[in-house]
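Example 3.
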Amino acid sequence: MSDGILHAEAIENAERLLAVQKRRETVSLAIRYTILTIVGLIMLYPLIWLIGASFKTNSEIFAGAGFMPQSPTMDGYAKGWETSTPYTFGRFFWNTFLIIAPKTIFTVISCTAVAYGFARFEFPGKKILFASLIATLLLPNVVTRIPQYLLFRDLGWLDTYLPLWVPSAFAGDAFFVFMLLQFLRAIPRDMEEAARVDGANSFQTLIYVVVPMLVPAMISVALFQFMWTMNDFLGPLIYVSSVDKFPVSLALKLSIDTAEAFEWNRILAMSVLTLLPSLVVFFLAQKYFVEGISAGGVKG
Amino acid sequence: MAQLSIRNLEKVYGGALKALHGINLDVKDGEFMVLVGPSGCAKSTTLRMIAGLETVSGGHISIGDKVVNNLPPGERGIAMVFQNYALYPHMKVRKNLSFGLKLAGEKKDEIARRVAEVADVLEIGPLLDRLPKQLSGGQAQRVALGRALIKKPEVFLFDEPLSNLDAKLRASMRVRITDLHRRLKEQGQSSTVVYVTHDQVEAMTMGDRICVMKDGRIMQVADPETLYARPENAFVAGFIGMPEMNLVNATVSRGEGGPVVTFGDQSVRFGADLAGRLAAGTDGDVTFGVRPQHFRLAAPGEDALIAKVIKADFLGHEVDVHVTIGGERFTVVLPVEEYRKASVDGALRIRPDEERVFIFDRVSGQNISLA
């Protein structure tokens, strides 16, 4: 049966080809992963080094570029926490919290309200108002620093936290309004119309129907605001002058300023601590965060 | 009493685009009124204006004896069922049903009682603790129906509620909704319904009366039988009925004994019936209309049209035959046996039923053979 032989031969050939293909795929996969791992490590190395160095002694830090401490010590953490001021670092974390909490909460509330207004209502001047909102997105922050400073000085708000969070309470962050707006646009209006037929007014519709659907986007806004405020250095630097009101971002710089010889291990140790809240919050809310920023994927 | 009246209702978009041209419509208390028409005929806009989801550009809408033009949707005494159900995605079925009552400040035990009642009627009891995303299309639509029912509104509004369901489910929901309407009516509850659809089968099977719309105008309002048997214009004639009515250009002239209708090189003689129906002095260019079902095979020697068969679709008990007569295309529905026997060399000798042919004005489309 020549047919049968031919058939067996063909199968053998095909199998050989398949094996070659598989081997090639394995090799290319290995190469790909090796490259990705190396690049990833290079990107992460400063962070790894930072964490490693925070356990080193001050003299060891500059001894080499390796990240493993020779004789690990908690000295940096213990002394760094004490700081060179009368306050512990705990105080500065608390101060940061006093800025972040109202800023994040009020940002979410005000931006949601404004985005809802722009997304769902027709009112005179809407186009102009929206255009100016978007225009502020393009405005560099630096431009408004001086007029803002003068304004807050005249209000007597210098050396308080008010200049840091009050603008956000009035939807001062156009970016977040825009983000929520895009998210809202992707949500069909039928549910809101159903709520209106059910007798809800605009406010009840917002609270009972829109907000629950908007939660992922609101979490993203809160996260962004949390991380940006945590990392904000210039704002507190301009408006907060008493040491007892310093947030962590300023406190870190404080140790650089006052110590005659820089205690680098303390600074690094406190930097690691400063990173922690953002990381923890991010990983806790990661699921919503991804859902929130991929606004286009909302199911109808 | 929950009759709905619409007077000179207009909708203008952006000051220029007129979507609704001053329509008048009365829906009696307890009546099932279907708004039907092709897409873009403003039937949904009309419904949304009744609901209060669109502003009124002109005219009046009244429910019962109060004008509701400026009332918010919640105070109009209406409930609405949406095409894509529009259930609140984060609320369980139970909360979806009770949301309206809760907003109205209804007491807890009253809400629980009404939820149980509605769940019983619609057989959604086992679904009460599910989220909308855990429901199938048919279940979701029943919940949406329940959300309307629980409010005991004066007028029910349906916006193409069945178009997201598959054909089989659609048929059973159709029966369910008409059943429900009948039951409400028997119990003496308000059961006025305005139902929007683009599906003429839905319209014909569900409506007490049907309002056919086109381009923001009402073409005819009548019960299903009248709509089918006595269409007021060519649009209604073509819109209602499956397969579509044949509407072809023709000329009418007076012959001995009755009018003669000519298309291309063929003509057919009619008698006293059509002569009596036709408005006096009707001559010349018209649109001739006859439903595919209203042709019959001509008896030997009888005046007949010679139809050239292009294609025949077998549907089991009958055949849709696509033919040309005098250069005009027609569809003819014949029983399978008759078609087999009668088809000679790809041609049929057929005659339209005289009592069921219509003559429409070529320009205005008005039916001039109704009298």
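Residues 295-300 of chain A have pLDDT under 50 and may be disordered. Chain A has 14 helices and no strands.
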